[in-house]
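Q: I have 208 residues here and want to know how they pack in 3D. Can you give me a structure?
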Amino acid sequence: MPRSTSATSASATGAPEHRSTGAGHRLSADERRADVIEAAVRAFASGGLHGTSTEDVARLAGVSQPYLFRLFGTKKELFLAAVDRSFARIESMFEDAAAHPLADLPHEFNPVLASIGRRYGSLLADQSLLRMQLHAFAASDDAEIRDFVRQRFSGLIALVSERSGVPATELRDFFAQGMLMNVAAAMQLDDSELAWDVMCEGVPESLD
């Protein structure tokens, strides 16, 4: 069926695209922007900054490229918005977990760190969120992206430090373990994998 003249004009000029939900609710500008950012997270998580086109993102979001560029002037700006959304999700989860520390733990375990660590492990099941983090680090050869990622990552460290009150050595160990979890989750290692056993338990005698 041919497109209507108005729809073609909107696509070509980048005019606001009036999408609606199944219930007939027309999305606001903020909701459309949020949809585009979520689509960007999925797209960049798959292809990274340089392997993902704005056409890929527009297609996932169900909008035209001209409209996408009305929201975000450059691909880098869109990538930074996707990075920000990913860190915001982690930050929100850290805040909620810190507000619900685990109880009845051995005295050597910090209840806030234990709660955050457990929740973060569950969060890593979201492969888009995980790989978006990794692509953010990988794209940090760009000075603007590097400064932004440093700022957001430093914010996570400050949050955990403030909420848990642990010393610097324990804080470093916590984030080091988190990075190990990222790598293991990206490779989809589990308890049945020898590499995971070696990391957790040491080299088995049969391999010495």
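Q: Anything worth noting?
A: Residues 76-190 form one domain. The first helix runs from residue 5 to 13.
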